[in-house]
Amino acid sequence: MSRPTASTKPDYVLGTHDAEHARLGKQHSLWRELVHDGWKRAGIVAGNRVVDVGSGPGFATMDLAEIVGKNGRVVAVEISSKFVQEVNDQAKARGLNHVSGHILDLMHDEIPTLDGPFDAAWCRWVCMFVPKVSTLVNRIHHSLRDGGVAVFHEYVQYETYGLQPPSEGITSFTQAAMRSFSDRGGETNIAGRVLRELRQHGFEILSVKPIVRSARPAEDLWQWPAGFIRTYTPRLVESGQESEAWGKKVLDELNLAEQDPQSIMLTPTVLEIIARNRRE
User: Fold this and answer.
1) Strand partners, 204
2) Which pLDDT tens digit goes with each residue over 67-125?
3) What's the CA gap between 115 and 83, in Å, rounded?
4) What phi-psi label fits residue 239: left (phi over 0), alpha (psi between -120 and 50 degrees) or beta?
5) What DSSP string describes 58-116?
6) Is the dihedral of CA 63, 68, 70, 76 positive or negative?
7) How would you list the strands of the sheet with 204-211, edge to edge?
8) How far is residue 126's CA from residue 135's CA, in Å, rounded to a whole number?
9) CA–CA dist 157, 142 (Å, integer)
């Protein structure tokens, strides 16, 4: 099989349709405070050169652009041409000449450093989808200067995702989602492997922070885990992995839970990793 070209590379694994785009925007807004806290503790400041690895449509990219300012640089790399175009369109509309998006297959292409290595890399929920985490970590290693930092958000315990007390349908959704990622060559609970690969590539682990959150139907955060169930359940059915009856059961349980203000949804457990690069 020939290697994908810029025009034929596979799309973002969860899709680039309008519902997924809206979910990604909501997701970023709900995680924004925690993300910015991690960037601050990692030392990302004005004037830095930062690469956003697996940028999607650029929500984090634009936040990073604001932090580093015009004397800094933000490079967004992403496999979806649609998302890369959106990054570049946003940058042009906002007059952000220090931001650029690039179509990239991280399993085959080096991260473009353009006019020099980066001070920092941001990578959220990308390692779980790639077939070789070692390759991804190696790309980041070579893109960073000596002493540069990498910040990751990756799942360490996806099984915490669901209602508490558990419900059969929602629990089966979590299991089905994990199987679908595995079938595509990914691994959901990937954070431990990321830590191992970082150490093997000479990174110094500066900080490790587990993040699990809970929400009730009236809270804004509820829309993050619930929104993914709503958008991904139909995809699992359309792909033939699950039946229409299964999809109906999952969504019926979600709707029922949302009618009860006392319902509790836990998110999958994320591990925030901050690591310092060592070239030698």
Assistant:
1) 276
2) 999 999 999 999 999 999 999 999 999 999 999 999 999 999 999 998 899 999 999 99
3) 23
4) alpha
5) SHHHHHHHHHH-TTSEEEEEES-HHHHHHHHHHHHHTT-TTEEEEE--TTTSPPP-TTS
6) negative
7) 99-103, 73-78, 49-53, 118-124, 144-157, 269-276, 204-211
8) 12
9) 29
Angle between the 18-42 and 59-68 helix axes, to the nearest 10 degrees? 30
**How sure is the predictor about 18, in pLDDT bands with cuts at 50, 70 and 90?**
low
Compare 25 and 230 and report the one with higher pLDDT.
230
Burial 13-34 (b: 16+ CB within 10 A, else e): bbebeeebbebbebbbebbeee
User: Which letter does DSSP use for residue 219 in this model?
Assistant: S
> Based on the number of CB atoms within 10 Å of its own CB, is 193 exposed (0-12), middle (13-18) or buried (19 or more)?
middle
Q: Is the dihedral of CA 54, 55, 61, 63 positive or negative?
A: negative
Whether a cis peptide bond, with omega within 30° of 0, leads into 261 is no
Looking at the DSSP bridge assignments, the partners of residue 73 are: 49
Tell me the two tokens of residue 44. 């990302």
Q: Which domains does the chain have, with CATH numbers?
A: 18-276 (3.40.50.150)
CB 128 within 8 A of CB 58: no
Tell me the C-alpha distance between 182 and 257, whole Å.
28
Two tokens, residue 148: 């540069």
pTM over 0.70: yes
